[in-house]
Design goal:
Elements lengths: L1 E5 L4 H10 L7 E6 L19 E5 L5 H10 L4 E4 L6 H6 L2 H23 L9 E7 L23 H20 L3 E6 L1 E3 L8 H10 L4 E4 L5 E6 H14 L5 E4 L4 E3 H15 L11 E4 L14 H7 L7 H14 L1 H15 L1
Parallel strand pairs: 1-2, 1-4, 2-3, 4-5, 5-6, 6-10, 7-9, 8-12
Antiparallel strand pairs: 9-11
């Protein structure tokens, strides 16, 4: 396959690109990313040495450029991860989320439809995997889980833009016969996550002995999935999933935000005793953000039953590995934070 990964310099994308490097099935691995504040080539150190790997600095909002990349590399498979993804940013500046997540997805769909299906050609053997989020389903009550048949009810501009792109992808299968698959994943954690997200924010705040902000009462619940397990699930869906289907990917580990933050405090105290302990004393509750969904939980039964995927990491193992990674990669944290501030200055 000539495989195009969009957003391959981001958090999940960079973990996916490293997973794919050197796989015998992948003849050419094309990484398309426009390197926004959350995309960093530092997350892909050493990738240029892999035969068949190509980086394309391209913005999905540029339709002509996207079409050219798909055609020039004779792309046969797509794993579409590129997206504006931070809920807080979508509240203060929703326009980028509409243009990237919806219009950018449209450009990519059109590029693949043009390359694979026009002029009498067949899309047989091609695959377009659209990677989405559990946030499209809205907020759960105290019981139950999201399944693939749960009605969409997005509550933020971010989740609304992802819901719209999901529906657009689905429509291209039913209208044009494009061979698409969709995944909706729960919250990811692990190495190379941009330091504005909850887990790296907490770790970095503790290291610098700054206060750790927790929204509202801290009782919002999330289901956590280790990024390494997520990318293996994506690979499994791409290769074995049924065209036109949606697969929910979850870690089967629910936790309140406050309990997660307290666990991170305890791990940092254990791994960095020279800080003097008492990290929980840095927790401060702050005003809740608008539209903050109370609970997410994914039921991954379908992907487990049909495709045989299972998570490899318990949360306890994965979060310990994650904290250790950030403690050991402070140069990366400081480099990407500095570059992002320079871009936004």
């Amino acid at each position: 396959m000539n495989l195009l990964v969009t957003g391959g310099a981001g958090f999940i994308g960079s973990n996916l690109v490293r997973f794919l490097a050197g796989r015998a099935e992948v003849k050419r691995l094309v990484n398309l990313d426009c390197l926004t504040y959350a995309g960093h080539l530092e997350s892909l150190a050493g990738m240029a040495e892999h035969s068949g790997y190509v980086f394309e600095r391209t913005d999905l909002r540029d339709k002509t450029a996207v079409v050219e990349v798909v055609r020039r590399h004779q792309v046969t498979h797509v794993m579409h991860l590129a997206a504006e993804s931070h809920v807080d940013r979508s509240i203060t500046g929703p326009a980028d989320f509409i243009h990237t997540n919806i219009v950018g997805t449209f450009h990519l769909l059109e590029a693949c439809r043009d390359a694979w299906m026009r002029e009498g050609s067949s899309a047989e053997g091609r695959r377009f995997l659209h990677v989405s989020t559990d946030e499209v389903y809205g907020s759960l009550g105290e019981e139950g889980c999201f399944s693939e048949t749960t009605a969409y009810a997005p509550n933020s501009p971010y989740s609304a833009s992802k819901a719209a792109s999901d529906m657009l992808v689905r429509s291209y299968h039913h209208t044009y016969g494009l061979p698409v698959l969709v995944t909706n994943g729960s919250n990811n954690y692990g190495p190379y996550q941009y330091p504005e997200k909850l887990i790296p924010v907490v770790i970095q705040s503790l290291l610098e002995r700054r206060t750790v902000p927790v929204y509202g009462d801290g009782q919002n619940v999330r289901d956590w999935l280790f990024v390494g397990d997520h990318v293996q699930a994506l690979w499994r869906v791409l290769n074995a999933g049924r065209v036109g289907e949606t697969y929910n990917l979850g870690g089967r580990h629910e936790m309140t935000n406050l309990k997660l933050v307290e666990h991170l405090c305890d791990l940092v105290d254990e791994m960095k005793p020279e800080l003097g302990g008492h990290s929980r004393e840095q927790i401060r509750f702050v005003e809740d953000r608008p539209g903050h969904d109370r609970r997410y939980a994914i039921d991954p039964t379908k992907v487990e039953r049909e495709l045989g995927w299972r998570r490899a990491h318990t949360f306890e193992d994965g979060i310990r590995e994650t904290v250790a990674w950030y403690l050991g990669h402070q140069d990366w944290v400081k480099a990407v934070t500095r570059k992002s501030r320079d871009k936004e200055a």
